[in-house]
Write a structure and sequence with these properties.
CATH topology: Sortase, Chain: A
CATH class: Mainly Beta
Radius of gyration: 51 Å
CATH superfamily: Sortase
Largest sheet: 8 strands, mixed
Order of helices and strands: HHEEEEHHEEHEEEE
Helix content: 10-25%
Distance between the termini: 171 Å
Strand content: 15-25%
Strand order of the largest sheet: 2-1-5-6-9-8-4-3
Number of helices: 5
Length: about 300
Amino acid sequence: MTKPFIKHGKRALAGILAALTALSLAGCNDVEQTVTPDVTTTEPIVTTEPTVTTTEPTTTEPIVTEPPLPEPLEKYLSYYEENNDFVGWLAIPSLKKSNGDLWIDYAVLQAEDNSKYLNTDFWGKKTEGGWIYADYKVPITETSHADNITFYGHSMKDGSFFRHVLDYQNKGVDFLKENYVINFDTRWEENQYVVVACFLIGVYEHQDDLPLFEYFKCRNFETEEDFNYFYDNIMLRTYYNSEIECVYGDEFITLSTCAYTFSDSRFVVVARKVREGEDISGYADTYTKNRNKHMPAITKD
């Protein structure tokens, strides 16, 4: 049994070797083929965001230097120390007594209301004459005050306080020409004003046939219309005209006192602040009577 296995095994082995030899020879006769495996090599995609250097603009805020607050005027320090309601000094420098003193030459006080100094003097003493005081609504400070400051004073028979404000009513245009400059210094600043209107008015609606003009409420002119309302009304009533220009942005003072033309009447003098560099020397010659002034209807009865 083994021999046949060997015999047939030798033949089979010979056949296999012959086949391998043939395959080997056949392979040498072909062009060598290099088989490259189908490998897709993808280069990694590197997404590099461009480097953006954001340079914030260097914004240097301008340094705003507030101007220093004005120092109080030395000549008024003692008045403020004596009464902290002291805010300034009012004077009409040409309106003099026979001895050379001024008729209107007073410290001005400003309280938290308009009643305190009706019957209280500078030193806190109760008196019929009270004192000269500024309307309380807009405080007078080192940096601000009302566009139109109203001063109140009694018209005393002895000539004190605002009695001589009535001279602008009773003594005519020549008196005005001689006394058209009014000084009002705050505690911090010296100022001059020129008279632009003088008028008589009542305090109640029934005293006139025009709407009541509450001049004492014309404090700040927030708009040009506010200013025009004030200016048109004072010029409608003024006893005198002049060539003195007044525009929106100007500052004013108003002197108000009791008049005796009719019950509950007031006589009022309005003056404009002198502008920087303004020459006022020729203004006196421009005053004339206003023959068309509006008078309260009660005076026509």
